[in-house]
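Lab notebook, design round three. We kept the backbone fixed and only want residue identities now. Task for the bench partner: fill in a sequence for the structure below.
Input structure tokens:
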């Protein structure tokens, strides 16, 4: 493992070892569970403690969950076993390991942003497949999330990054209205890869 990768892994291992930190699924998934297929396979990319992966497994999907942190992956494996859920949690550097094309019916990404990976994520969806994506925006009402603006989305950027897909749900509240209410500081999207038309 390269030095930079090893340092990244160590940093996330330390964060994920905190016993007070518990997994939670992203709102974009919880608010849109009704859009999931009844069967199929799903990937929770950069899963952390795997809140999304657990929710997808509870919905009956065949789940893979990948993260660079072996601590996170082990905690997720134990949690899934304790609930009697089957999922495949693996330690992987998703910036190095290539995604297979047409591999998943559902991909969920929350609070991880690498713009260079977007074409590979889109290619990894099967025709008809859905991506659920949620992460921090630059325009925000609080100081949660990364301070480096490069790791935050610009206005409507998720739509642009996933433009080859069809948008099924989108929410980005910016600083409109009553700032004490709503889903602030994040953008969320559910988008679908359309099936190829036969000529
Ligand atoms: C802010 S956390 C989000 C975790 C989870 N998706 C969630 O919403 O709780 C970012 C995650 O990305 C993972 N990560 C960062 N770089 C990665 C890489 N190159 N390959 C795989 N995982 C990575 C970290 O280990 C961490 O678990």
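Proposed sequence:
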């Amino acid at each position: 493992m390269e030095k930079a990768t090893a340092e990244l892994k160590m940093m996330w291992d330390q964060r994920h070892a905190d016993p007070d930190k518990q997994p939670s699924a992203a709102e974009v998934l919880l608010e849109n569970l009704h859009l999931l297929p009844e069967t199929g396979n799903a990937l929770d990319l950069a899963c952390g403690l795997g809140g999304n992966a657990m929710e997808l497994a509870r919905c009956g999907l065949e789940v893979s969950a990948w993260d660079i942190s072996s601590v996170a992956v082990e905690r997720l494996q134990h949690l899934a076993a304790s609930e009697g859920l089957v999922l495949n949690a693996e330690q992987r550097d998703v910036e190095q390991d290539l995604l297979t094309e047409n591999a998943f019916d559902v991909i969920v990404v929350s609070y991880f942003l690498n713009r260079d990976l977007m074409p590979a994520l889109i290619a990894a969806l099967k025709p008809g497949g859905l991506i659920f994506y949620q992460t921090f925006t630059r325009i925000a009402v609080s100081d949660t999330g990364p301070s480096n603006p490069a790791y935050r989305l610009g206005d409507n950027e998720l739509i642009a990054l996933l433009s080859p897909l069809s948008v099924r749900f989108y929410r980005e509240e910016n600083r409109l209205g009553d700032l004490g209410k709503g889903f602030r500081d994040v953008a969320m999207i559910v988008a679908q890869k359309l099936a190829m038309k036969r000529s």
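Keep this in mind before ordering anything: The mean pLDDT is 96.
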